[in-house]
Structure formats: C-alpha cells, structure tokens
Amino acid sequence: MTKLDLSPERRAELVVRLQAYFSDEFDEPLSAFRAEELLTFMLKELGPSLYNAGIQDARAFLSDKLDDLDIEFSLDEGT
C-alpha cells in the first residue's frame, strides 16, 4: 500500500488547524505532539479511502469527457 505523505509545510499547517479546532469546538487545548499523532492516525485510517474516492471521481469525470468527445467528433457514416 502506498503511504500518503504531506509536505512538512502542509503537515505543520494542519497541526495548527487541528489545535485551533480542538480549542474552538471542545474548549480544550491540544498539544502539537498530540495534534501530530492525531493527524498521522487520520492519514493512515482515512487517507486511503479518501484517495480512492478521489481517483474514482476523476475516472468518472474523465470518462464523461471522453464520451463527450466521441459525440462531438463522431462523423455521420451515412447509411
């Protein structure tokens, strides 16, 4: 299975956002260490499903566009 990686900058941004979320929603502080661990858990548990759903969405989108191309550029064969 492919590991989902984030850039260090994106990971740091998400840690800050998790800390803010816990503070706002639960009125509870979340240390950077715990936020990092929570992020790692979420990526491991949710990441593959979200990635696969994105791939399926992209596949469906491209399939629709290819169908549109077939219609747009098909020539009448005249029977």
| Number of contiguous helices | 2
Structural class: mainly alpha
Q: Percent of residues in beta strands?
A: under 5%
**Strand segment tally:** 0
Radius of gyration equals: 21 Å
* Count of discrete structural domains: 1
Report the end-to-end length measured between terminal Cα atoms: 52 Å
For the sheet with most strands, the description reads: none
Low-confidence stretches: none
Helix content: over 70%
- Report the order of strands and helices: HH
The rough form would be described as rod-shaped
**pLDDT averaged over residues:** 90
Would you mind describing this structure in some detail?
The chain is mainly α. It has one domain. The chain has helices at 8-26, 32-73. Helix 1 crosses helix 2 (32-73). The N and C termini lie far apart (52 Å). The mean pLDDT is 90.
List strands and helices in order, with pairings.
Elements (H helix, E strand, L loop, with lengths): L7 H19 L5 H42 L6
List keywords for this structure.
mainly alpha; 79 residues; single chain
Please give a quick description of this structure.
With 79 residues, the protein is an all-alpha fold.
